[in-house]
Amino acid sequence: MKFENFKAGVWRNQYQYRSFSPIPVNAEWIWEDPKINTLLEQANRALGELNAYSLIVPDIDLFIEMHVVKEAQTSSRIEGTQTGIGEALLSEEQIRPEKRDDWREVRNYIDAVNQAVGELKTLPLSNRLLRQAHATLMRGVRGEYKQPGEFRTSQNWIGGSSIADAVFVPPHPNEVPDLMSDLEKFWHNESIAVPHLIRIAISHYQFETVHPFSDGNGRIGRLLIPLYLVSHGLLVKPALYLSDFFERNRASYYDALMRVRVSNDLIHWVRFFLVGMAETAARGRDVFGKILVLRTEVEHAVLALGKRAPNARAALNLLYKKPIISASELEHGLSVSGPTAQTLVRELQKLGILVQIAGQERGRVYAFDRYLNLFLS
User: Fold this and answer.
1) Exposure check for the chain: N or C terminus, fewer CB within 10 A?
2) Kind of pairing, strands 355-358 and 324-326?
């Protein structure tokens, strides 16, 4: 199938509305546009440089958790969830009651990412895996009654107050199983010579167009990207998430998807996606570089603590995964006494590693702010 001759699908008359039926995507894809080749090369190079950190950085999993937290917070923010990255790192008791619903949605996304990536060790990327992630995403939050973990059996729509004035109406629910089966085959079809980044660009478009779930499609569709990269060996660890790029270019993101459906302009979408891949991979690479510099500085600094240095280094390993922490969490995380944890906090404050950000005498909360700020830029 040639990008330049692509026909996205057809509009079908339903009762009082028209839905869009996209064509299946499990096919050979070719293009003439030279810009795509250049962008594909740039994205692959940046992705390779990012992946190199996963191969050479000791204890890389310590730093992956923060990438997952940022993705969960950013992807949820695109859907209107108002939880900051700092709040996402707090426990539920530390969140104001009126903000706990949003907090739970972000924490569910973190669980969904971690579970799905873990499942890739024994399961291939599949609709089953996405349905499992969706069930976790919807657990106990808004949308929990909208068929969690199952493809929809009713019509949904995007934008507008009702289906009558919707911006876009995805295919009829009867079409969803076949379209998603075709998409799954596309992920694993070894008889076609289509580069992986082109496959995932097309797959993300197709997923968002099919909109297979009653709720949560944006988040699961964006999660599909790192899952594909890890499952096909392009990344050793789930260190790349496009939600930040999509959120910063939100209008362009939605416009690029709609241009495919309305104007058959797949080239514009693929270009946009590859730019996002290259930019996001480069930013991730730079963050890892800054992490290594910071790690060297702080681990050298704690050597000055003498006999407390081993506990301080263990505390740093906790902080790399959760850079906002209380003394009691440090106590339990390190299996030390309360006084030892309090002393350790004071010493890390003196070294400028921890700063107090909330709380009075009881319930004080501290941040490894130099590290946390690397994920806020």
Assistant:
1) C
2) unpaired
